[in-house]
Every structure is written in structure tokens, then in C-alpha cells.
Amino acid sequence: MSRARIPFNWRPPFRSRPPALHLRSSIRPQSTEASGISRLDRLTSRLPKRLQKYTNGLRNAPVSHVVSFMILHELTAIVPLFGLFALFHYTTYVPISYMTEHFGEYVQGGVYRFEKYFKRKGWFGFGQEDSSASPQLTPGTTSQDAHVEDAIQRWEKGEQKYKILVEVALAYAITKALLPVRIIGSVWATPWFANILVRIKSSLARRP
Hints:
It is built from eight helices and no strands. The protein is mostly helical. It has a domain at 80-177. The longest helix is centred in the first third of the chain and has 29 residues, at 17-45. Keywords: Membrane, Transmembrane, Transmembrane helix. It comes from Trichoderma guizhouense. The chain crosses the membrane at residues 66-90, 177-198. InterPro entries: MRX11 (IPR018811).
């Protein structure tokens, strides 16, 4: 009995790997884009309504633009925070009166947030034992107001750890107040920064 000859160009009747690889590669950019848009939505939902109009155009922008905007947004928060803290810490310029008068809510939020964070981390001399000595409340004030007033009084007395706390809180308050400028600046610089990121990615991809 002779055996049947198999044609030279015969292929098995199941799907080969290249189409599957091609399918995965076609899905990955869509998944990345969806993830970027989701993060953008979470970010813009926390913005005031008057600022969301500046970021609406990013929903239809390339993924590189969305990523660039998010990086710029973080940089415009981190750089001023540390820069302003350094200015207050190494100079005598500490605009606490002006900031508490015009942006008191931001100053309160900064003092309350960073005091809790420093206590939890044990930084700058803060510790968990500080939490047990809560300031006394006066009529018409909240616990957060009392903490801020206590921190400012300790800063005026020259306590080093509260000096750092108040300086960080003021830097945070100014950075928060500059949010409209940061958003507009980030949107304006997004195409330029996206071009830089694409060039960096291309140069890295060409490396062996």
C-alpha cells in the first residue's frame, strides 16, 4: 500500500500564531488609550467646572497628548511646591497673613493634611505622641481650625517642626491657588511635550 503524499505547501488546519500576535498588538493601543482617557476623566472630574473646558479637547487627542498633559500637570504641582518651600525656608519671606486672609481654606487644608502625614511618618520631629495633645476648641471653631491656629502659634514661637509645617502648608496653598494657571499652561505645552516624548521613545526603540 502506498502512502499519500503531503503537498509541499500544506499547512495545518488550525490558526497560526502570527494572526493571534497581530490581534494582541491591535488591541493593546486601544487598551492603553482607554486607560489614559479613564485617568484623564478622573483627573478632570476633580477640577472646577470653569477649568474642565480647557481639557475637553484632550479626550479626542492621541494617547501621547493625554500622557503628556498628565505628566505636565504633576510637574506643575511638584516643582512649585518644593520651590516655594525652599523660598520660605531659606528667606524671611513668608506671606502667611496674606494667604490666610485670601486663601484660608487652602492653608487650613495644607496644615491639616501635612501635619497628619508628618506625624504618621515621624518626620521633622513629629510623632504619634503629638496626636494625643489636641488643641482646645473655642466656640465657633472646628477641630481643623483649631489645629491650624495652634500650628501658626507654634510657628510664631519659633518651634522648628511647626516652622517647616507652616512653610509647606503655604507652598501647598499657593500651588493650589495657581491651579487655573497650571491647567492652562499644561494644555498649552502638551503638543510640544508630546513631541519630545515621541522622539525619546523612537530613539530608545532604535537602540539594539
